[in-house]
Amino acid sequence: MEKLVCDRCGFELTEKQDVFLALDGIDAWCNAQKARGQEPRGVFPCKYYFQCKGEMILITEKDARKRKKGLFGQDRTK
Ligand SMILES: [Zn+2]
After folding, report:
1. Domain membership flag for residue 77
2. How many domains does the chain have?
């Protein structure tokens, strides 16, 4: 499962169709940001961009598991 979360206000998009459409437009957003001299943080602007100036970050369940393992999976047996 994938979802998109705003990095400023926390707005979430979890509908498969919304995520799919967002990923489809990622190139357009990245090019637009680079044209303005800014590095894109996410895949497209938040729905509330004019208030929060946030960008939607793609989160996957796989990433979440990896982070957890990094916290607790360290090898300290020497
Ligand atoms: Zn936002």
Report:
1. no
2. 1
65 assigned to some structural domain: yes
Question: 52 alpha carbon to ligand 1 midpoint, in Å?
Answer: 5
pTM of the model: 0.70
Domain that holds residue 45: 2-72
Classify residue 78: in a domain, yes or no.
no
Tens-digit pLDDT profile for the chain (78 aa)? 889 999 999 999 999 999 988 888 899 999 999 999 999 999 999 999 999 999 999 998 775 565 555 555 555 555
The alpha carbon of 59 and the centre of ligand 1 are apart by a number of angstroms equal to 15
* Ligand 1 center–CA 24 separation, angstroms: 20
Strands (E), 1-78: 2-6, 12-13, 44-45, 55-60
